[in-house]
Backbone:
């Protein structure tokens, strides 16, 4: 089929409209975050008369009432911990499943099907357990849950990557007298790095964006950004400073957005692979 | 497999197994026990068994069924809408995306934002005084609907969900569309088949497994929706936007009714199993 110029123009138009509409919340919030209070009060239009970074400065000036840096640190630490732990647990297990078939029949289905089960089902017992062992409102405790949430995807991604890896290199290493553990750390690990990296990034993004368990299991010390941002609204009662609120949401969105865009090629592929094969 | 390999492989899967036993099996056991017990914060360690009272309470609770109904309707409507929109965009934009693949990044963006933050963003966007949408509605039509009122809340929330997750359907379906072998297309072109017939007889049948999969994934995810709905309307809008996840959350945190919350969880778990079994049957039949 010859592409007619008119048809191509229509396609471009649809693409631009779709891109704007689908990204509308981010665009609109970004615009509001760059407006001054008086401008927000006078007009809600999408055009900024006098852009200002005042709202971003203001977030960090109000740390006595609303400690954004603290929330950001909590998210970084618990999401980072959860993401790393999910890889640490899944990588050896995926290797044992793919190469030795251990647990492939029972463990793999349990973990992958976990994706279809709303985890809120386990939230109440987990809350009560956390209460007993004093893990409520800790980054460590939240990180453990984030790991649980990401295990299915991470395990699928790593298992797929290991399946596609040639067996011959490992067999050669074995002939050279290396044991399973040495092969795993010195031969398989370097080869699997790309897959591990994209799993880690995806796991981090999903962990950062988690809300439900953050809401349930943290109250002050370990509150992540997603929950902290919602505090901004409740804390200010009826008198929300909308410019600052918008800046808070943009700041809270930037880390996953940045990581995601930097690695979009790998992530896009992994996201789809995880979805299709899961 | 040699004995040494066997030992090694058990060592390799031991950590994840232990983790799942603590984080999944133990909570499940507690769920099951508490669901048939009389339990409160005072007797957590020694609940009294009482049979199926909690379940009866849940099943007789009108709020439970309306939450269930909301979640089902929400999941169905959004999954279908995302599928149709995603399918259209994937096929219509394929010639552009195939040449300028970096444009795909634009469609990854919405999925990178936390649904909770998206919900909060809409609190601003839909706000009657400072919100962008009411501003332009008033400017162009002279009036603005109350987006989060009980009669509009369902559709407002559904549109928000669809806008965030249509890119997911778009990207999955685009890669499936791109995987249709060139020879099939060329053969069809040689036969002089029209574009619409090509879609109907070649592209759609080829993509059907992916189409169904996309629908299931989106249905499951939207069925348990919590974040964006909770931050936008909570159980507000006259309780009309209580999803099943919000129902369980509130039974526990607002009403402190552990037994009821846990029984509702078990019912949800059973339902999820039913969906899962249907899904797996389906996947097997396709293979």
Residues:
């Amino acid at each position: 089929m010859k592409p007619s110029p008119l048809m191509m123009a229509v396609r471009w138009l649809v693409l631009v409209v779709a891109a704007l509409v689908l990204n509308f919340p981010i665009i609109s919030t970004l615009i509001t975050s760059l407006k001054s209070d008086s401008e927000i009060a006078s007009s809600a239009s999408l055009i900024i008369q006098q852009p200002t970074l005042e709202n971003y400065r203001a977030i960090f000036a109000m740390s006595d009432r609303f400690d954004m840096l603290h929330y950001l640190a909590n998210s970084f630490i618990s999401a980072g911990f959860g993401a790393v732990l999910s890889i640490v647990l899944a990588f050896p297990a995926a290797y044992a499943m793919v190469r030795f078939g251990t647990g492939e029949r029972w463990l793999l289905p349990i973990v992958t099907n976990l994706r279809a089960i709303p985890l809120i089902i386990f939230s109440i017992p987990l809350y009560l357990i956390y209460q007993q062992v004093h893990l409520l409102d800790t980054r460590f405790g939240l990180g453990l849950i984030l790991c649980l949430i990401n295990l299915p995807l991470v395990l699928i991604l790593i298992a797929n990557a290991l399946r596609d890896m040639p067996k011959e290199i490992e067999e050669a290493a074995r002939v050279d007298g290396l044991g399973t553990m040495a092969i795993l750390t010195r031969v398989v690990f370097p080869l699997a790095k790309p897959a591990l990296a994209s799993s880690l990034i995806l796991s981090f993004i999903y962990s950062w964006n988690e809300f439900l368990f953050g809401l349930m299991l943290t109250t002050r010390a370990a509150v992540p950004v997603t929950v902290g941002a919602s505090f901004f609204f409740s804390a200010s009662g009826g008198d929300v400073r909308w410019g600052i609120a918008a800046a808070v949401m943009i700041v809270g969105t930037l880390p996953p957005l940045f990581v995601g865009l930097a690695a979009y090629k790998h992530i896009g592929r992994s996201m789809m692979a995880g979805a299709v094969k899961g | 497999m040699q004995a040494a390999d066997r030992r090694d492989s058990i060592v390799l899967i031991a950590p994840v197994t232990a983790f799942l036993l603590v984080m999944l099996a133990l909570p499940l056991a507690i769920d099951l026990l508490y669901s048939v017990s009389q339990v409160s914060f005072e007797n957590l360690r020694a609940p009294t068994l009482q049979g199926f009272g909690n379940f009866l309470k849940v099943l007789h609770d009108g709020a439970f069924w309306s939450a269930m109904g909301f979640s089902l309707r929400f999941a169905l409507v959004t999954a279908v809408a995302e599928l149709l929109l995603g399918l259209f965009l994937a096929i219509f934009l394929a010639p552009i995306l195939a040449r300028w693949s970096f444009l795909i990044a634009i469609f990854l963006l919405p999925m990178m934002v936390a649904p909770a933050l998206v919900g909060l963003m809409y609190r601003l966007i839909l706000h009657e005084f400072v919100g962008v949408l009411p501003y332009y509605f008033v400017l162009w039509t002279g009036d603005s609907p109350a987006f989060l009122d009980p009669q509009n809340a369902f559709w407002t929330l559904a549109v928000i969900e669809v806008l965030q997750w249509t890119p997911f359907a778009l990207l999955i379906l685009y890669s499936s569309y791109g995987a249709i072998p060139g020879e099939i297309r060329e053969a069809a072109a040689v036969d002089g088949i029209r574009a619409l017939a090509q879609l109907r007889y070649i592209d759609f049948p080829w993509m059907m497994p992916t189409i169904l999969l996309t629908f299931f994934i989106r249905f499951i995810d939207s069925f348990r929706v919590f974040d964006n709905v909770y931050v936008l309307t909570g159980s507000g809008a006259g309780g009309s936007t209580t999803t099943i996840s919000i129902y369980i959350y509130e039974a526990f945190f607002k009403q402190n009714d552990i037994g009821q919350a846990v029984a509702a969880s078990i019912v949800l778990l059973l339902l999820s199993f039913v969906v899962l079994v249907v899904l797996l049957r389906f996947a097997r039949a396709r293979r």
Chain B has a mean pLDDT of 88. The CA atoms of residues 66 and 217 of chain B lie 23 Å apart. Chain B touches chain A through 96 residues (CB under 8 Å).
